[in-house]
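The freezer alarm interrupted the setup, so I double-checked each line after restarting. Inputs confirmed:
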Amino acid sequence: MSLISTTITSPIGKIKITISNSKLIKIQLAAQNSPSQNDQNKLIQNVISQLQKYFTDANFFFNLPMQPKGTAFQQKVWRALQNIPCGETKTYGKLAKQLNTSPRAIGNACSKNPIPIIIPCHRVVSQNSDGGFMGKTAGKSLKIKKWLLEHEQ
DNA sequence: TATTCTTTTGGCG
DNA sequence: CGCCAAAAGAATA
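Predicted 3D structure, all chains:
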């Protein structure tokens, strides 16, 4: 098992990319200072390239091998998230109705989304507020969320 | 198995 | 119009 991680700098801060067995398994936003050593991996460079394209053009469609570790329900939610059109936002309630579940479960799954940005959990908002992002309802995470939404609009 | 986390909804002042 | 409390589903230890 080869575990590779790299940190890059983006308009929204540092992004930590983690790859295992030639699959993207984790993306961490606002990462701490960590050494970017294993960036010679081919897939890592591909991920970096696609991320940079996204930051240039939000309509870019990610095409990466992902293997997010989660339950079947979570993966179903994450898959549904990727079907949200660019620039559009959906509420937890809408997604819940679409997946035939409850909004709270959706929020739970979104909070545990291991791959932000690529899995557009930032396009999911609450009905009355800006919603949460990565389990937080305020702070730097929300700033990133807002940036991403404006970027797509 | 129990606890915790997440949003939505309804009622009251 | 604004605030508070309760509910329902799922993940985690």
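Quick read of the result. The longest strand of chain A covers residues 3-10.
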